[in-house]
UniProtKB/TrEMBL annotation:
Matches recorded under SUPFAM superfamilies: P-loop containing nucleoside triphosphate hydrolases
Keyword vocabulary terms for this entry: ATP-binding, Cytoplasm, Magnesium, Metal-binding, Nucleotide-binding, tRNA processing
Source organism per UniProt: Solidesulfovibrio magneticus (strain ATCC 700980 / DSM 13731 / RS-1)
Aminoacyl-tRNA synthetase recorded as keyword: no
Gene3D superfamilies tied to this protein: P-loop containing nucleotide triphosphate hydrolases
Name this protein carries in UniProt: tRNA threonylcarbamoyladenosine biosynthesis protein TsaE
GO biological process, one term: tRNA threonylcarbamoyladenosine modification
């Protein structure tokens, strides 16, 4: 599959969403494939579940209490690499601190994950990123992933190779 084209993954249940998070943890922990993860989807679509799987699979993840950071705007998990979990649900117009958090994540070589990324200004979107759109389906979940930048493309290529059984053809 061509990483310049979006890939669709079918996730039949919560366990598959957690597993996708674990696979992404392995991929995004590697500096060569470390890309920001921008998540767009409705309430209850699986965004925080994915982050729980991702953070929990990284070294130190057993210390991470993953929850939606809607009221804090950002949670930083004590994983290696650190995960900066940003939630823009309450600030659809943007907030100056979001830029600071994203810059700090990049400077610290952390994994940046942004929920409600549809509220993120394109000017603030990291150049190396995977954009994940949660699409409505009658059952389960469908994620459409689009790569941007060299590391985003490398991450998508690695993801497709790691979970061919989830590809929605």
């Amino acid at each position: 599959m061509d990483p310049s084209q979006p890939a669709r993954l079918r996730l039949p249940d919560e366990a598959a969403t957690l597993e996708l998070g674990r696979i992404l943890a392995e991929i995004l922990a590697n500096p060569a494939t470390r890309a920001a993860l921008l998540l767009r989807g409705d309430l209850g679509s699986g965004k925080t579940t994915l982050v729980r799987g991702l953070a929990g699979a990284l070294p130190g993840g057993d210390e991470a209490e993953v929850a939606s950071p809607s009221f804090n705007i950002v949670n930083v998990y004590p994983t290696r690499p650190e995960v900066f979990h940003v939630d823009l649900y309450r600030i659809p117009g943007g907030d100056p601190c979001v830029e600071e958090h994203l810059e700090a994540a990049l400077e610290n070589q952390a994994v940046a994950v942004v929920e409600w990324a549809q509220h993120l200004s394109r000017a603030l979107a990291p150049p190396d990123r995977l954009e994940c759109d949660w699409l409505p389906v009658p059952s389960g979940r469908l994620c459409e992933l689009t790569a941007h930048g060299r590391r985003g493309a490398a991450a998508l290529t690695a993801l497709i190779a790691a979970c061919p059984n989830l590809l929605d053809r």
